[in-house]
């Protein structure tokens, strides 16, 4: 069936395949099918030029399509790599990382390197030098749920 459709459409079959892939990107977004679709469209351009040439058989077309898809995917990865790096909320969904740099008051003393502080409405376990309750501290780092603090 696909061979019959490709034979009827001729060089336009790659254009149709490219458009179908680009439309599929709208249904399943992820910016991946775009690059494969561009490979199909580029193969379609070459098909318009070389359709009647003896060397432009389906095997060559498939290899050209695969090569262009890989090239466009690599170019696309390079283009997309830098996108989204700058954010006005860099620690969104990283609660512990968003606490680094904040100051607080020890609710309980730090004894033997362990204590607790209250930030907003949450109790946090802290690690740091032994300090009495009521000491002002600064959060220096966070690992898992534990915060590392230092006197402020």
Jot down its keywords.
rod-shaped, 5 strands, 2 domains, OB fold (Dihydrolipoamide Acetyltransferase, E2P), 5 helices, 152 residues, 46% helix, alpha+beta
Number of strands: 5
The figure for the number of domains is 2
Number of helices: 5
What is the terminal-to-terminal distance?
74 Å
Overall pLDDT level? 87
| Net shape | rod-shaped
Strand content: 15-25%
String of helices and strands: HHHHHEEEEE
Strands of the widest sheet, in order across it, are 1-4-5-3-2
- Characterize the quaternary organization of these chains: single chain
Which stretches are low in confidence, meaning pLDDT under 50 for 5 or more residues running?
none
Largest pleated sheet:
5 strands, mixed
**Radius of gyration (Å):** 29 Å
Helix content: 40-55%
Structural class: alpha+beta
Please give a structural write-up:
With 152 residues, the chain is of the alpha+beta class. The chain folds into two domains: 2-81, no CATH class; 95-151, OB fold (Dihydrolipoamide Acetyltransferase, E2P) (Beta Barrel). Helices cover 46% and strands 19% of the residues. Strands 1-4-5-3-2 form a five-stranded mixed beta sheet. A hairpin with a 2-residue loop joins β4 and β5 (146-151). The radius of gyration is 29 Å and the shape is rod-shaped. This is NfeD-like C-terminal domain-containing protein. The chain crosses the membrane at residues 12-36, 56-75. Keywords: Membrane, Transmembrane, Transmembrane helix. It comes from Allorhizobium borbori.
């Amino acid at each position: 069936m696909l061979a019959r459709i490709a034979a009827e459409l001729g060089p336009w079959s790659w254009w149709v395949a490219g458009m179908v892939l680009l439309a599929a990107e709208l249904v399943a977004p992820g910016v991946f099918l775009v690059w494969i679709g561009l490979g199909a469209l580029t193969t379609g351009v070459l098909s318009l030029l070389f359709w009647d040439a003896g060397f432009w058989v389906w095997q060559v077309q498939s290899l050209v399509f695969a090569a262009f898809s890989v090239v466009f995917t690599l170019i696309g990865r390079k283009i997309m790599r830098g996108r989204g790096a700058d954010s006005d909320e860099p620690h969104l969904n990283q609660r512990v990382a968003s606490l680094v740099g904040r100051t607080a008051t020890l609710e309980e003393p730090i004894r033997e390197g362990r204590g607790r502080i209250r930030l907003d409405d949450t109790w946090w376990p802290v690690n740091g030098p032994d300090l009495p309750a009521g000491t002002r501290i600064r959060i220096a780092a966070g690992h898992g749920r534990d915060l590392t603090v230092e006197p402020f």
